[in-house]
Design brief:
mainly alpha, 199 residues, Lysozyme, 45% helix
């Protein structure tokens, strides 16, 4: 027997798309459900792990879907613990790793998702024992830039104390010339945030 509720659940979003408005599974439009992207490093992200994973996979269809979904969940969980905006952390990871293609100084096996310690061939970056530790180190390093508050979890970022003064970059624009030498670094992250929210 056909379940009318199941048909409605599928039909409503399709009708909405036909009129140029994307309706999510919870019945809200993108704007109603998620609001506008925040460029602040501290605070809550707005995208659920599924949307984060979809964003990465759209930009790198060759990535392992299970690994991507696992990383998305890790970012939301770690950022929630430390009070960091997971949308910002995730798009920064996408930028730094080339949407998990790597190919630069940092390799996939290093579990370094934000270029920590990557300066040149002599200093290709830090390595972490597993993905969870690498994600935590990234989130902790972002917190060092965005806040003066102490860490909630045990410190795994060896460069946490190198950020002086603590909290010197409340938003992503301040990461230009500090986190990275690129003067357009903050703008590049802002553009990725916009793409994430317009997925």
């Amino acid at each position: 027997m056909i379940n009318p509720a199941a048909i409605l659940a599928v039909a409503v979003p399709l009708v909405a798309v036909a009129y140029g408005e994307v309706v999510l599974m919870d019945g809200y439009t993108d704007e109603e459900s998620f609001g506008k992207p925040s460029e602040m490093i501290m605070g809550s992200g707005l995208m659920p792990p599924e949307r984060l994973a979809a964003f990465l996979l759209e930009n790198n269809p060759g990535a392992d879907p299970e690994r991507v979904r696992m990383l998305a969940r890790m970012y939301v969980e770690e950022c929630t613990l430390e009070g960091v905006n997971w949308d910002v952390a995730f798009v920064q990871m996408c930028h730094e790793t080339g949407f998990l293609r790597f190919g630069g100084l940092v390799t996939e096996s290093m579990n370094n998702f934000c270029g920590l310690g990557a300066i040149g061939p002599e200093e290709p970056g830090l390595s972490f024992p597993d993905a969870g530790t690498g994600v935590r180190a990234h989130v902790q390093h972002l917190k060092a830039y965005g806040s003066r508050e102490p860490l909630v979890e045990a410190q795994v970022d060896p460069r946490f104390g190198c950020v002086t003064p603590r909290g010197k970059s409340p938003d992503i624009r301040g990461l230009a010339g500090t986190w990275a030498a690129d003067t357009r670094y903050g703008l590049r992250l802002a553009e990725l945030l916009e793409r994430l929210y317009n997925l």
